[in-house]
Fold:
Amino acid sequence: MQDEGYVKYQCIHKAGPAPEHSAWQELNDLRSDLVKAGLVGVLDNGVGYGNVSLRAEGQGLFMVSATSTGHIAELGPQHYCVVTDCDIDSNTVWSCGPMQASSESMTHAAVYAASPETVCVIHLHHAGLFAQLLEGKAPATAPEAAYGTPAMARSVEALVRKHPADGIIAMTGHPDGFLLYAPNVAHMRDLLYMLSQGYIPC
Structure:
């Protein structure tokens, strides 16, 4: 996970106000719980990991927690931005808000593009749950697909198209990393609970 927290793509960012979303508080409460569980946070070297997002209600593609926020236990609206466009093939993301988009924004974009039903996406890290997913033969990205790259985004996109309603994906080329997507935050909490009880998606 040594690369986590670094933006690998080209991010064209425009400073702007904090984004608004009717489900923001619900998402942010979930993120706070994920921090307490150690699924989102910061390494000893200060590099953060994990991020959360919601499909945008107005202009833009989705709202996502900003880069370099893993060390903050409780985020405010100023710690989020909106991804307004994404071109996976050119490895470019456009964002607007107080801070730049997180390192996995292209992968989030790929999920939203592949599944119109998806409203919430989260990217987490946990060695035990990651091993559980791999051992259980859960959907997994190509081993050569590194985090924050077009290859990872395309690998995730292909898997989501097979199961667009919801899902959990092990990010094989991103040790300890996995991604969940759901039609709302409440459903996301259900997926997390099921995963904690040993659930393995097909």
